[in-house]
Amino acid sequence: MTALIQLSGITKILKGQEQPRTILDGVSLDVHAGESLAIVGRSGSGKSTLLSILGLFDRPDQGSYLLDGTDISRLPERRAAKLRSSHYGFVFQRFFLLKHLTAAQNVAMALVNGQGWLPRRQRRAKVMAALEEVGIAHLAKNRPSRMSGGEQQRVAIARALVREPKILLADEPTGALDTETGALVIDALQSVTARGCSLILVTHDRDHAARMGRVVHLEAGVLTEQVAV
Ligand SMILES: Nc1ncnc2c1ncn2[C@@H]1O[C@H](COP(=O)(O)OP(=O)(O)OP(=O)(O)O)[C@@H](O)[C@H]1O
């Protein structure tokens, strides 16, 4: 089966300095639909840069990026933005929730911004299904200030899921949480693979990484290892 994502020879060079610096050096990686993958590596090894390229926030200088067999490595920004909103979900270390809105309203914002107009009842059903999926439907009417960090991060995951992405990219989503709360957030992230969504997690936490189907290591921009766990 063709992989959903096929990166081949991805190279990113940082210019504008005296010496151009290679941040990603010929990274090749396949990710299948419904697969979970952790990217680990030291600080500065290029993890976030790779995630930015995967999420179409940045473009490689060399190499190709195929999505479902189509080369998207050099898409103009307008088309990249469209694809980002239809195919990708993002979760970051910070939750970026709007404080004056409830959990349900925060999740609904992603629908208002991304999918045009949806009848109210349909919108509500999608929002509740997403909150349910991450185990916090009972907090739908709560504002972020009344929630723990782990609950807020799960609202952020529900907000990413409500558009039914094919790929969920998570950059240190447990970085601001204690171990126990972080494990709950990893559970919520893992659950997306059951519906065929691929999960790509950047983490410093070896235990969280080991819970993914596959772990890849970046070292100074080179993908050094792929270990089945
Ligand atoms: N816009 C930029 N300007 C200068 N240096 C940059 C820029 N973007 C990335 N870098 C450098 O590229 C290297 C890789 O950065 P990147 O953020 O991808 O690493 P990382 O593995 O995600 O690190 P961390 O774990 O600390 O988040 C680092 O040395 C970083 O300082």
UniProtKB/TrEMBL annotation:
Protein name: Peptide ABC transporter ATP-binding protein
Matches recorded under CDD domains: ABC_MJ0796_LolCDE_FtsE (cd03255)
One Pfam family named in its UniProt record: ABC_tran
UniProt keyword annotations, A-Z: ATP-binding, Nucleotide-binding, Transport
A GO term for molecular function: ATP binding
ABC transporter domain segment(s): 5-229
Alphabetical list of InterPro entries matching this protein: AAA+_ATPase (IPR003593), ABC_transporter-like_ATP-bd (IPR003439), ABC_transporter-like_CS (IPR017871), ABC_transpr_LolD-like (IPR015854), MacB-like_ATP-bd (IPR017911), P-loop_NTPase (IPR027417)
Gene3D superfamilies the UniProt entry points to: P-loop containing nucleotide triphosphate hydrolases
Keyword ATP-binding appears in the UniProt entry: yes
